[in-house]
Fold:
Amino acid sequence: MKEEKKQVLAFDFGASSGRAILGRLEDGKIVMEEVHRFSNDPVMIGDTMYWDTLRQFFEIKQGIIKAKQRGGFESVGIDTWGVDFGLLDEQGVLLESAVHYRDDRTVGRQEEVFQKIPKEELYHLTGIQFNNFNTIFQLYSLVQDRPWLLERAKTMLLTPDLFNYFLTGEKKAEYTMVTTTQLMDAKKQKWSEEILDALSIPKGIFPEIVSSGTVVGEISEKICEELGIKPAKVVAVASHDTQSAVVAVPTEEEDFMFISCGTWSLFGTELKKPVINETSFAFDVSNEGGYGDTYTFLKNIIGLWLAQESRRQWIREGKEYGFGELEVMAQQAEPFPSFIDPDSPEFNTAGDIPGRIRKFCERTGQKVPETIGDIMCCINQSLALKYRYTLEQIEACTGKHFNMINMIGGGIQSRLLCQMTASASNRKVLAGPVEATALGNIAVQLISLGEIKDVKEARQIVAKSEQTYEYFPQDKEKWDVAYEKFKTIIQE
Structure:
């Protein structure tokens, strides 16, 4: 009798939508089936931007019901973006929906925190890139503005840990998510009491840190009864979506460079130990936790958010184009007339990104892009050049040279961006898989269930499961000239 393959259920939450995907091993490949897709929209109430946490958990339940109808599952794993969290009271009740990382409660908080603990000292403790939305600044805003909420809180759970708790009743903090908070001591791999004391953040709210791939419990009896399902394990996968994606980089090399490309672009390499020194501090490079207690040495770069939000602005103006049409317009535009720094603060928030791009170019004395094609060309070329800039920083910090860049995630559906990345960086680009995050989530569950030996085997399986595409550098001299101009723009 043929042994039935174990099937697992992955929930992959993005900034605008989420999915439930069944996965299993079949003939040496991971086979996936999407069973549920749902919108994931922020909600403005007064001046605060929230996530709709209760709706998100409702959608998890819907995904579980649909997965049951497609053969069931042995385990569940949930990955999301980093940094955001929910607070539970003494009875384990959620005090309020999680606040969105794009909320403006953290504006100006970095400078306040640096008065309590110097910036360089904070970096050397955590090894984490400074972003306004990091958990440390979100929690400090509560210390200053809503201390009563922290006084009522018994437990802080990061988003995927919160959902795991809703499913199991177990309160744990998964390692890769913890590192995004800028509250973990990178060398000791535990919550930093020094930071918490300096900022008057209550230490008792932080749960035990567990390694990626830990089975945190089983779906509760009450939920099993409600949904009509059998008990299943809940695995704390590499719960930060970037780290699930890194598990699915299709490489056999120990040293590799990747770009996890989506709304954000995460550009980095996997290391056994953190790199925390004066150079990495000057370049503001992050040491985020990876699967297997590794470190992902990376930079967080604004990615396709620029194109996504520009498209939304054009739709508001009555010009509705698909991303394929926008890419054609970009290809037809004049190359290299003007550039932006994708990470300039004015591009962080929603709104008229095309208008802000024009103002940036005008302010920096460049040709102002007028047409939609000009704007899209500017975005793609600027992203590709920022990738090269980041590549040089990471190589300088690690002392390593990388001949190839692995591009993974939904952003690689832009062949234009893949080609520009190869040309700008003068490196071969291997693009794929598109579904890296879901594949990594599934792979970690299968490792935890004993179906896959380890991450090395998982990456070999991913390489056989998904098609990849190669891009080679073109027009080196033109891109080199453009890069010199780009550096003067972003260093002003």
